[in-house]
Write a structure and sequence with these properties.
The complex is a heterodimer. Chain A is an alpha+beta fold. Helix content of chain A is 30%, strand content 23%. Chain A has 14 helices and 19 strands. Chain A has helices at 36-49, 101-109, 127-132, 140-143, 146-149, 179-182, 216-228, 241-246, 263-279, 291-296, 317-327, 355-372, 385-388, 401-411, and strands at residues 10-11, 29-31, 53-56, 73-76, 83-87, 92-96, 113-114, 150-156, 162-166, 191-198, 200-201, 205-213, 235-239, 253-261, 282-285, 306-311, 334-338, 343-348, 377-382. Chain A has an eight-stranded antiparallel sheet with strand order 15-12-14-13-17-18-16-19. In chain A, helix 7 packs antiparallel against helix 9 (263-279) and helix 7 runs antiparallel to helix 11 (317-327). Chain B is an alpha+beta fold. Chain B folds into four domains: 14-100, 2-Layer Sandwich (Uridine Diphospho-n-acetylenolpyruvylglucosamine Reductase, domain 2), CATH 3.30.43; 107-224, 2-Layer Sandwich (Uridine Diphospho-n-acetylenolpyruvylglucosamine Reductase, domain 3), CATH 3.30.465; 228-338, Alpha-Beta Plaits, CATH 3.30.70.2190; 343-480, Alpha-Beta Plaits. Chain B has helices at 14-24, 34-37, 60-73, 125-132, 151-157, 164-167, 201-205, 239-251, 264-273, 294-310, 322-333, 335-342, 358-372, 400-417, 442-455, 472-480, and strands spanning 30-31, 53-55, 77-80, 97-100, 107-111, 116-119, 137-138, 174-180, 186-190, 214-221, 223-224, 228-236, 258-263, 284-292, 315-318, 345-348, 351-352, 375-380, 386-387, 389-393. Chain B has a seven-stranded antiparallel sheet with strand order 15-12-14-13-18-20-16, with helices on both faces. In chain B, strands 5-6-10-8-9 form a five-stranded antiparallel sheet. The model of chain B is unreliable at 1-12 and 473-486 (pLDDT under 50). The chains are: A alpha+beta, B alpha+beta. The interface between A and B is large, with 89 and 92 residues.
């Protein structure tokens, strides 16, 4: 096909700002297709030539994954940034994948709506990148993660086709739900070019509560109570001492709750939840403006080169936080978590001298978490290259790995996309 | 007329199959006499296929052994829960084995601290709801068939129900699965922990209509029961007005827990069979439910009420207590059964449209009924835009089945053209496989095919479902002069 002869990519000159590699691998080419068709054509051309492609949105989560086996071309989706269809009365929107999430939220806010997906607010992050990385934030307690919000996708495949899954309507069981494979699929099966989302009205009023606890046991007991209650906060964030310090709360243990909804309901929550905390030995503390944004953005910590995420059963959240705090003590970790979901984060600075110790420690932690629940995991979302060479950032992907390999082989048979970056060397 | 199933694998002599199945299961859990099999040739859809044998495994290991027998003999197999499915997903392939999960019906664990439960696939939906209720928890998906349908079947079809408007459908409440894969391997994907690394295979399996393996355990999400619930019934003089009230609620940023519509034909059927207090002269009623803290439900209910009045409601009634609330819901949940009393047969159509398109789509559906000479009743999840037109017909009238199925296909075309989908919660199964080109192109289906082939390379796992049979759709639509994708 003649279209494949078009100059659809640019060679990267040495010293070019586009020559930003990932994990020390520097690409030779850079492309920024102007249309979904351009993405598909490019993918097919790369697949035919055996070139390895790294799809890239805002470039804020490129550190996720194992080192690439090879990298020839960086495919920047930034030119695909249009709103395709926004029917606010239907509470749905369809946008191109390269649209920055922050801009999408601004468009929605004009109509009193939001996409309830609140990963740490890096302004460059695109919706496609956030969905592909399955990034989430505290609001997942009330609204779920990208898998619960994506209604439909258009994907450019390595055979040059563009295919659709799902749709624009809020309920849909026609055919396989292939959206799910691309949410969190890290662009390893295809490149997202368009996404349809289910939206939520912006809450009529919001408030943030900070509750302080003197002991781990008290914090844990309160968390258990609030998860069981039907008081319904939008988010339940548990903070260890260091994370509390970073959020401006003082280096003690805290639980920060985000409330939202009808004003009467928010008032009731703001009155009952501190009482519940008092029953468990905690107390309400004053919080300064901007607390919620600081809590939401605890992950954004340029000085830390290590960020791990543990996935555990909800009731194991507190214990897992303690475990990470203690075992990583030598690395002065910042530990916090989405306590209503069983998600715990720890960030730290890892120096190259202690790489092997750290790798062993993380491997042990993985084993211990697996002892708590067979589906528990510890993933390194950010890690220095030296550490990535010692430990698989994903850990054991479980029984499903052979199936994941089969799916990868079926959808990207040439292993053109992100070779080696995903679980099990996919 | 979409009836003929594909039997890609020729059945072996039935006795060899039965003999092999009896080698892995006690003989009393293998049915093979024609008399015994008759009960299993139906589900809730319009078609019937008789299996060669029905088996009742009690464990994943037994399921695995059954699949290995089927693989060895080249026999297709199909999983079945309670057989309430409406799209033929649980109909066996002719000469195939029907794997009934009905006896794998234990609730293995209820863990309130983790807000999850671990259940076997044969657990009846309502029973799970009742079992978790004492813990102050609920299992959200609540199909109308919840007194009979199973969690395994719900997972297969990604079932919904009235209360999924605010809280999501089965896929949003499924944390993990144990699955017996077509090669007999028993795997766990997902589980009680959040964010398992790798591809979201749980999300792929849910709604795959039993075509990728047989689910033997399910980790479900539970949510706290709301402190307060208010249910109201709004009465409308026209269907358009009721539709506009639905769009009005969504546009006003009100997301009720449930928002259901019933038209006059349904209202009359309900009132004649099991009166719920619906006004029989109304063109349509909306049944709305809001839940949350008691401090907010009054405000929410008030807003819904105001929207209904603003769109021309002739009456709005608030249930004053649990008894009145239960009565309003009993009418809705029993609507399908009530219709069964006023017509020899009815054909349930399931489609989804954007909520703002409801008025025009309902008008188009009424016109389809008029043209085809069928009465069409509507009872549906209006807040989701999930339609359930019920075409009333009589199977004893020669040629009626073909006409009723054609009318259903016509309704699907209208939904597709409005930017909607062929199914919100009943699945594609056998019923709508040949309509898939209305919303998916050849390349879209090709990707689904590649996934199917990657997981079920032999093609013996519930064959003939979801995917169009080559040529059939062209046949159906060519006569009607409709554009088809391929």
């Amino acid at each position: 096909m003649s279209s494949l002869e078009l100059p659809i990519w640019d060679a990267i000159a040495p010293g070019d700002p586009a020559a930003v590699g990932v994990d020390g691998v520097v690409p030779r080419y850079h492309a920024r297709p102007a249309s979904p068709e351009g993405v598909a054509t490019l993918l097919r051309a790369c697949a035919e030539r055996g070139l390895a492609v790294l799809p890239r949105g805002g470039g804020t989560r490129l550190g996720i994954g194992n080192p690439l086996r090879s990298l020839d071309l960086v495919l920047d989706t930034g030119a695909l940034d249009a709103v395709v269809e926004y029917e606010s009365a239907d509470l749905t929107i369809t946008v191109q994948a390269g649209m920055p999430l922050a801009r999408l939220q601004a468009v929605l806010a004009e109509q009193g709506q939001m996409l309830p997906l609140d990963p740490p607010a890096e302004t460059a992050s695109t919706v496609g990148g956030v969905v592909a990385a399955n990034a989430s934030g505290p609001l997942r307690y009330a609204f779920g993660t990208a898998r619960d919000l994506v209604l439909g996708t258009r994907v450019a495949n390595t055979d040059g086709t563009i295919t659709r899954a799902g749709g624009k309507v809020v309920k849909n069981v026609a055919g396989y739900d292939l959206n799910k494979l691309h949410v969190g699929g890290l662009g390893c099966l295809g490149v997202l070019t368009e996404l349809s989302f289910k939206l939520q009205p912006l809450p009529a009023s919001t408030r943030t509560l900070a509750l302080r606890f003197d002991t781990v046991a008290a914090q844990a007991a309160f968390l258990a109570a609030v998860v069981r209650s039907n008081l319904g906060p939008l988010a339940i964030e548990a903070l260890g001492p260091t994370a509390s310090g970073a959020a401006g709360l003082g280096e003690r243990r805290h639980v920060v709750l985000r409330l939202g909804g009808y004003p009467h309901a928010v008032e009731r929550q703001a009155s009952d939840l501190p009482k519940l905390a008092t029953n468990h030995g905690g107390h309400l503390v004053e919080n300064a403006d901007g607390l919620w944004d600081r809590v939401r953005n605890l992950q954004v910590q340029p000085a830390a080169n290590l960020l791990v995420k543990a996935g555990v059963p909800i009731s194991a959240t507190s214990a897992t936080m303690e475990q990470l705090q203690e075992r990583l003590a030598d690395f002065a970790p910042r530990v916090w978590g989405h306590a209503g979901n069983g998600v715990v984060y720890a960030s730290a600075s890892a120096d190259d001298e202690r790489t092997e110790t750290l790798a062993e420690l993380l491997a042990q932690l993985r084993q211990e978490l697996r002892g708590v629940d067979t589906s528990a995991s510890l993933v390194l979302l950010k890690a220095p290259l030296a550490l990535k060479r010692h430990i698989d950032v994903w850990g054991d992907a479980g029984d499903g790995l052979p199936l994941m390999r089969s799916v990868k082989a079926a959808l990207d048979p040439t292993s053109t996309l992100n070779p080696g970056r995903f679980v099990g060397g996919i | 007329m979409i009836a003929e199933a594909v039997a890609p694998v020729a059945p072996p002599a039935a006795d060899a199959l039965v003999h092999a199945l009896c080698a892995v299961l006690p003989a009393e859990r293998v049915l093979w006499r024609p008399y015994d099999l008759m009960l299993y040739e139906y589900d809730g859809s319009i078609e019937r296929h008789r299996p060669a044998a029905v088996v009742f495994p009690l464990s994943a290991r037994e399921v695995s052994e059954i699949l290995q027998v089927c693989n060895r003999l080249g026999v297709p197999y199909t999983a079945r829960g309670a057989g309430t499915g409406l799209s033929g997903g649980a109909l066996p392939s002719p000469g195939g084995v029907l794997v009934s999960l009905a006896r794998m019906n234990r609730i293995l664990e209820i863990n309130p601290e983790n807000r999850c439960a671990l259940v076997e696939p044969g657990v009846v939906n309502l029973r799970l709801g009742q079992a978790v209720q004492p813990y102050g928890l609920s299992y959200v998906p609540d199909p109308s068939s919840q007194k009979a349908c199973t969690i395994g079947g719900n997972v297969g079809e990604n079932s919904g129900g009235p209360h999924t408007l605010r809280y999501g459908v089965t896929t949003n409440h499924t944390l993990g699965l144990e699955v017996v894969l077509p090669d007999g391997a028993i795997v766990q994907v997902g589980g009680a922990s959040a964010d398992c690394p790798g591809l979201d295979l749980v999300g792929l399996f849910v709604g795959s209509e039993g075509t990728l393996g047989i689910v033997t355990r399910i980790w479900v999400r539970l949510i706290p029961i709301a402190e307060s619930v208010k249910t109201l019934l709004a009465v409308f003089p026209t269907i358009d007005a009721a539709c506009e009230a639905v769009a009005g609620c969504i546009a006003r940023r009100i997301v009720p827990a449930a928002l259901e519509m019933m038209d006059n034909m349904v209202i009359r059927a309900v009132e004649s069979v099991n009166p719920a207090g619906y006004p029989v002269d109304a063109a349509a009623v909306l049944l709305a439910e809001v839940d949350g803290l008691r401090d907010e439900v009054d405000a929410m209910a008030g807003e819904v009420e105001a929207v209904c009045w603003a769109h021309g409601a002739s009456d709005v009634r608030m249930a004053r207590n649990d008894l009145e609330r239960a009565r309003l819901w009993a009418g809705r949940k029993g609507a399908f059964g009530a219709l069964g009393r006023i017509t020899p047969d009815y054909y349930t159509v399931d489609g989804v449209v954007p909520r703002t398109r409801l008025p025009e789509v309902l008008r188009a559906i009424a016109a389809i009924g008029d043209d085809a000479g069928f009465r069409i009743a509507n009872v549906f999840h209006a807040g989701d835009g999930n339609l359930h037109p019920l075409i009333l017909w009589d199977a004893d009238v020669p040629g009626a089945e073909e006409r009723v199925v054609a009318a259903g296909a016509e309704i699907m075309r209208v939904c597709a053209e409005a930017g909607g989908s062929l199914s919100g919660e009943h699945g594609i199964g056998l019923e709508k496989r040949d309509l898939m080109p209305l919303i998916f192109g050849e390349a879209d289906m090709g990707v689904m095919h590649r996934v199917k082939d990657a997981i079920d390379p032999r093609g013996q796992c519930n064959p003939g479902k979801v995917f169009p049979t080559a040529g059939r759709c062209l046949e159906i639509f060519a006569r009607r002069g409709m554009a088809v994708g391929w």
